[in-house]
């Protein structure tokens, strides 16, 4: 079963000068793969991710996530991380991490161990009761990743998650992400315009064309993994 199955997916934004942001994207993404989505600014990377997340409706073609068509709402079993972390400033880190559980109307008390484990995994074990403003940019982004993972997503969508960080912190975060991915074994779609980052992290690199919305190349990266 493919984690994501796109067949001739098209996305035209509405409005007078509505851009054709995706122009016939077809790809099958097997479960458990780390997929980098690479291309210059404006080529449709975020649009593709938002369509997979059910945040935008496609205008033609078929798009399935975990075997079900994406229709107008986020599919089950996805987690998202954006460039800006979107942590709620008035909630502690622990309470931020529990947000998806509250949204899903699940019992928060049953997820405390999970939260502890994720905080540990990302080196934030001492910051559960801190507020977001007390954390560095990299730590905040790690907390955002924890939050995306707390409800055990099978598909993790990341839109330039480290784009706002300095180069040094970004490298460090890339290593950590690889470690997290090896532990969780979920499928990751990772949007970036960094070529080395895309190749370092990805099993598969989807290259979108500067002419918006075309899939130029799908590269299977065959590098030894740690
Ligand atoms: P990036 O290149 O990093 O994806 P952009 O600056 O292109 O970021 O876009 C930032 C935000 O603005 C995105 O949420 C995107 O959806 C929105 N956006 C980009 N272009 C347009 C547009 N032409 N009309 C409306 N919103 C747009
Ligand atoms: P990328 O993530 O690769 O920078 P985007 O998916 O953000 O590219 O944008 C692809 C194209 O769609 C761009 O021309 C952008 O201006 C346009 N676009 C993005 N978001 C919107 C939006 N909400 N409304 C209208 N046009 C948009």
UniProtKB/TrEMBL annotation:
Origin superkingdom: Bacteria
**Which part of the chain is the ABC transporter domain?**
4-226
UniProt keyword annotations, A-Z: ATP-binding, Cell membrane, Membrane, Nucleotide-binding, Transport
Q: Enumerate the InterPro entries for this protein.
A: AAA+_ATPase (IPR003593), ABC_transporter-like_ATP-bd (IPR003439), ABC_transporter-like_CS (IPR017871), ABC_transporter_ATP-bind (IPR050166), P-loop_NTPase (IPR027417)
Entries under Pfam families matching the protein: ABC_tran
Q: Which Gene3D superfamilies match?
A: P-loop containing nucleotide triphosphate hydrolases
- List, alphabetically, the SUPFAM superfamilies matched: P-loop containing nucleoside triphosphate hydrolases (SSF52540)
Q: Does the keyword Cell membrane apply?
A: yes
- Mind telling me which SMART domains this protein's record contains? AAA
Q: Does the keyword Kinase apply?
A: no
What the record says about family reads: Belongs to the ABC transporter superfamily.
**Classification via PANTHER family:** ALIPHATIC SULFONATES IMPORT ATP-BINDING PROTEIN SSUB (PTHR42788:SF13), TAURINE IMPORT ATP-BINDING PROTEIN-RELATED (PTHR42788)
Name the chain's protein: ABC transporter ATP-binding protein
